[in-house]
Write a structure and sequence with these properties.
Layout (H helix, E strand, L loop, with lengths): L1 E3 L13 H16 L2 E4 L1 H10 L8 H6 L5 E2 L10 E11 L4 E5 L26 H4 L2 H17 L5 E12 L19 E10 L1 E3 L1 E5 L5 E6 L6 E5 L4 E4 L2 E3 L6 E12 L1
This protein binds fe (ii) ion (FE2).
Length: 260
């Protein structure tokens, strides 16, 4: 059984502004040439809004929903520094429709995740209010549109993860505890949500031989990285606290698209 997340079709081309069409063109060129693109927050937020019917999106409740995640109990290193929620979706390239699938465990092969692979991991679902929010629909439709233009044949299996990494007085936080890795999908979108009291958390992109191509520290809400997971590896360095009185927190949304 699957549940419709959305009941409208993809925005038709003529509904997108010329500026958004140009940004989309730039993203697709970068993806074809370099296999990744790093977008400033105002650019990605404006683009997301183009894919939303109701332009009055509730950004604050979207960001606040990261305060209500559950501790990841499956960490192979025993760490309690990661919180998350998870949803599985699918999208149809001919109908241009995204659907929420029945809640299911998250599974990665050990080949892609040496720390936590080959185990069915059960996580709490992303709350209905958030998975059905206009802003999430906008992100999903933008992703679907871009990835379908890059790879038009075959429908998509989509996984959506809300992640919070915390560092406290007795633990550092590891955004990618598996190290430099691929997710084992076709494309990945990382949408930065928030960070407070953090040192570190540098993102890096690598080629197939793990030569570093680019590194940067995501700091701004709606800063976005899109990458081709078949061509590139990625990783994020640990976080620790800037001020010792409170914990460090790093929030991010990760969406993966894999051909069915
Ligand atoms: Fe990853």
């Amino acid at each position: 059984m699957s549940i419709d997340v959305v009941n409208y079709n993809m925005p038709r081309q003529e509904y997108l502004s010329e500026a958004s069409e140009n940004i989309k063109k730039f993203i697709l060129e970068q993806m074809r040439d370099k296999h990744f693109v790093h977008l400033k927050p105002d650019i990605s937020l404006n683009l997301i809004k183009e894919y939303v019917e109701n332009k009055q999106i509730d950004i604050n409740s979207f960001i606040r929903s990261w305060d209500d995640l559950e501790i990841d109990q499956y960490m192979g290193d025993g760490g309690k520094y990661r919180k998350r929620r998870y949803a599985t979706l699918s999208s149809c390239v001919t109908l241009g429709k995204v659907k929420l699938e029945e809640h299911q465990p998250h599974f990665q092969k050990k080949h892609y995740n040496g720390l936590n692979g080959d185990i069915a991991r059960h996580y709490k679902p992303i709350k209905n209010k958030i998975i059905n929010s206009e802003i999430m629909k906008g992100i999903l439709y933008l992703s679907h549109d871009l990835f379908t233009k890059l790879s038009p044949i075959g429908n998509w299996h989509i996984e959506t993860h809300q992640f919070r990494i915390e560092a406290t007085d007795n633990q550092i936080g590891k955004p990618t505890p598996e190290g430099i890795h691929r997710d084992g999908v076709d494309y990945v979108i990382m949408l930065f949500v928030n960070r407070t009291n953090c040192i570190g958390g540098e993102s890096a992109i690598y080629d197939k031989d793990k030569n570093k191509l680019s590194s940067f520290t995501m700091k701004d809400t709606f800063e976005m990285v899109i990458l081709n997971d078949k061509e590139l590896f990625h990783g994020v360095s640990s976080i620790s606290r800037e001020y010792k009185e409170k914990k460090a927190v790093r929030d991010i949304l990760v969406i993966t698209f894999r051909k069915k």
